[in-house]
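Is thymidine-5'-diphosphate placement plausible here? Inputs below.
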Amino acid sequence: MSAGAAKGRFIAFEGGEGTGKSTQTQLLADALRARGIEAEISREPGGTPGAEAIRNLLLHPPGDGWNARSEALLFAAARADHVARLIRPSLDRGAWVICDRFVDSSRAYQGGAGGLGDEAICALHDFGSEGMRPDCAILLEVDEARLRQRLAERDGDTSDAIGGRSADYHRAVAQSFRRLAQSDPDGFCILDGTGTADQVHARVLAALAPMVDAAR
Ligand code: TYD
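Reply from A.M.:
I modeled the complex. Tokens:
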């Protein structure tokens, strides 16, 4: 990065499964590139070879699976590698990073629905990733009935170790996300994830307009 060049921005899409995060990650990166902004797409768990290997352990666990604490540690370990090897270097060279999930997923799934509490998850994140936060976490919300329909179409009977958990677990995840976002209005942006991909994308661009305009 040359002296005085702007650092990139870090945007994370958050929400339960089927809320449209992956689609919106791609659409936002395309829109930024069309405006001449370098944009890197990534996802969690994953994003680097080490973190992708941990992703496989988490979503397709060997043996009897992980307990709540080991699961949280694995997410934090994957994230630490992702931050150190991909996210920070990309931001430092001026690129934007658009990530499908980040630490708020651990706060909602493991901390909230999994019962470990927010303090424990934030402590792991402070150690693993020096507490790194996105510039904006965009929470996509879709009501439960629509989500059930989307997921049946997308996954059928196949789901991973976490996606396949009970409806109560996923309801608790959605409630945790909402609580986290409402308690930090500067860090989050809550968006309606219903409608077509283009309609949701327009909401995303409107929410990020000040940041995007400042980068050009
Ligand atoms: P993925 O297929 O990427 O999610 P989606 O179905 O939304 O496309 O699978 C990631 C799974 O891991 C998903 O069930 C959410 C879960 N997860 C956590 O429990 N904690 C975390 O910190 C992250 C990043 C994901």
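Short version: The helical segments are 21-34, 49-59, 68-92, 103-113, 118-129, 144-155, 167-182, 197-215.
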